[in-house]
Amino acid sequence: MFRVWGKIVKNNKMVQSYTAQYDKSDLSEREMLDLCMEEICREFDIQKPLWLSLHEKDLARYGKVTFNADAFMEEIDFDTFRIEVLVEKDLKR
Q1: Looking at the domain assignment, is residue 75 inside a domain?
Q2: Closest by CA position to 55, among listed 89, 85, 22
Q3: pLDDT of 67-79, one tens digit each?
Q4: 20 close to 36: Cβ distance less than 8 angstroms
Q5: Whole-angstrom distance, CA of residue 81 vs CA of residue 91
Q6: Residues 10-67: pLDDT tens digits?
Q7: Is residue 92 a part of any domain in this protein?
Q8: Confidence (pTM)
């Protein structure tokens, strides 16, 4: 299962949170990420941010991406939009 946690942060406080998930093995991780991003942005009623190479590097390195006002074409009323890919851990030993 592929899950992405989206958060809206304003004044260093999380003001909105939503987790989107997809469980379709016929899609690539990138396609599932795009679908989750669309769902999260729809839930928060914000436009989808611009995806830059910096964001790609942060996702690959940390599994997290932070979007600030520069990533949006419209004015935003929050400080940052953050996403994190949630990885399920196998609890079997």
Answers
A1: yes
A2: 85
A3: 999 999 999 999 9
A4: yes
A5: 30
A6: 999 999 999 999 887 788 888 899 999 999 999 999 999 999 999 999 999 999 999 9
A7: no
A8: 0.86
